[in-house]
Amino acid sequence: MNLRAKLLLVFVALALVPLVALSAFNYWSGLRSVEGLVREASEDRAARAARRTETLLDAQEVSLIALANSTPLRDYVRELRQAARAGGAQPAVAQQAEGRRSTDAAAVAREHLGLFYVNNRASFETVTMLDAAGRPLFRMSAREGGEADFQTKDIVASGLRYNDGVWALTGAKALRSPLAQGGMHGPTLGTTVPVFEGAGDGTPGGALVAEISLKEILEDAAQGTALAVAVSTRAGEGAAGDASQPSPRVIVALDNAAGLIVYHTNEALRHQPAPAAMPYFEAVARRMRAGESDGAGFYDAPDGDRWLAAFRQVRGVNLSVAVAEDYTAASAGVRRAGAAGIALASLAGLAAVALLLLIVRSTTSRIERVARAATDIARGDLDQRIEDRGDDEMSALAESFNLMSDRLREQMRHEAESKQFESFMRLSAMLTHDLKNAITGLSMLVSNMEKRFDRDEFRADAVASLRDATEKLSRIVSRLSEPMRSLSGEYRLDARPTDLVHIIRRVLAAQAEPSMPLYEIEARLPATLVATVEPGRIENVIENLVINALEAMGAAGGRLTVEAGAEDGRHVFVSVADTGIGMSEEFLQTRLFRPFMTTKTRGVGLGLFTCREIIETHGGRVEVESKLGAGTRFRIVLPSSLFTSGERRRQTTKGTFAVHPAAQPSGPDAPK
Asked: Tell me, what DSSP letter sits at residue 172?
């Protein structure tokens, strides 16, 4: 994943997504707040409507009780009962209605009832007077045009709804009957009130049966609590469309037993079964009909708006009242503001993304220029420079890169010079070592010639020695003529199978044995040990190691131990150990094989450097183990077969024991 994709992912995850999520949360919180306010308002108004309905019903019943307790009706009931006890006919209220003479009590009762009905005909559809046997005496009802109709005969008793529990009452009380449909103005509530003969008589002498119209009561309840605006139809509530504005809220009253809509702000839906007229309202209506005391629920109107309805039961009547608020209209402002907030947050985030991409693109292009320059430098083009005009971090990076490339060019120049000097030092060390050996031999020859030149056998040996010295000097000159081949390790001229045991014994005889008994010499050598090497150079290495061991022990003496043998079938080893002063770990790690580094008072520090060069040229390695005050052991490992790759092995030192990978031999014994 590139830098641009990573930054974009981080910005989206940590900025854009939280911003949009916060806007969505605010939107959701706003809707929840509106829902709470709408729910609270609808529940409060439903409770007010139910209480208002109960209050109006109670008021109508109180007026009926007052009518039943009025003096004219009590006098009339007393006259009825007296006539019944005397066995005579009832007072002729009916006869008076036919134009005949009647008693004064009957006339006053008729006049009083007529006045009551005229004043309350909007609330009562009928008021019927019953005698003590439950027979209707007369009925007050409304005529066409609003006048009162006083009926004294042909009253159908079977259609009269009254509560026969009235005859067991001993005091004034209104008894209700179930709701009835089909009244002149819609559903009615039957109410029965006892009429007593006198204040001290506890047995009703008659009863008033009234059909209270619920239309006026419910409309009054709706208007009194400001819950509805009268409209002829409502769009989306089932009525045919017109241009009238919908009410901001709806009030619905249900007959719980019959499931009929007793009242609705849309008159077209009144007196219809709720499931058929308002199927979308059925979930709430079902709870209302089940008699739940209160509750609330959402429903979706046909016009797509979502409404929240709260309902209450009307006390003492199998009637429930619901008030619905238009939640969609109430939350429209919050929805618009929330949607706008989410849109603005998204646009702001996208704008920030676009700006970020522009910045990243510019920065990435500048980084790519630095990367291309670095690649060119890695390929060897050190003249690369980055031109970046600015004052930001990228400009500082470009300047640092230019400074780095300048220093790299300078460092490479110094490194090239250092490599040339190192090559010169390596060649000088090897040639110096060989010249030293040649000069030493010639010096000894010259010294002996002064004493023994007169001897024939000495002169023969001297001539042979001069011939060897001449050949050695010729080889040195040949190596000087081809320094690159000499430095690469490809200068071997006479690598051949050689018995290393013979070389070791010759070195010990020449260098160590003359110093006995100052030094104890222990040689652990096999009968023969053959390796394909250049005999002279390997002899120089062993000789140098033996001399170094003797010098490390010094005049105090010590033990010199020389071992040799085969190793893993493909290599041979020669070990030279002493009990001298030893070397420190710091010297082993940093200075041991470097030229001109020595712990001796004499010498220039080229011996071990030359030894390592010769051993590595043969494909071998040098191992060193030393400890201050305990002595040192050098161990050289050589391939037993001819090594022809010409690859030099890098000398490393670890702790006090330097181990180098074995050179891979070539030839028939080389591993496959």
From this structure: -
Strand partners, 212: 124, 189
pLDDT tens digits along 636-646: 999 987 765 44
Residue 478: CB atoms within 10 A of its CB come to 13
Q: For residue 503, how many other CB atoms are within 10 A of its CB? A: 23
DSSP-assigned letter for residue 326:
E
Res 243 pLDDT > 70: no
Identify the residue whose tokens are 């419910």: 218
pLDDT in tens, 140-189: 887 666 667 888 877 776 678 888 898 988 888 999 988 887 666 678 88
Q: 193 - beta bridge partners?
A: 208
| CA dist list (Å): 477 to 471, 472, 490, 492, 536 | 10, 9, 15, 14, 17
**For the purposes of burial, counting CB atoms within 10 Å of the CB of 336, is it exposed (0-12), middle (13-18) or buried (19 or more)?**
exposed
Q: Which domains does the chain have, with CATH numbers?
A: 69-218 (3.30.450.20), 492-672 (3.30.565.10)
State whether the Cα torsion 64-66-69-71 is positive or negative.
negative
Letter for the amino acid at 301? A
Q: For the chain, count helices (H), then strands (E).
A: 17, 18
Contact 280, 302 (CB under 8 A): yes
Give the per-residue SS3 of 75-110: HHHHHHHHHHHHCCCCCCHHHHHCCCCCCHHHHHHH
Q: Dmax of the chain from CA atoms?
A: 204
- Rounded to whole angstroms, the Cα distance separating 260 from 324 reads 18
Instruction: Please tell me whether residue 546 adopts helix, strand or coil conformation.
Output: helix
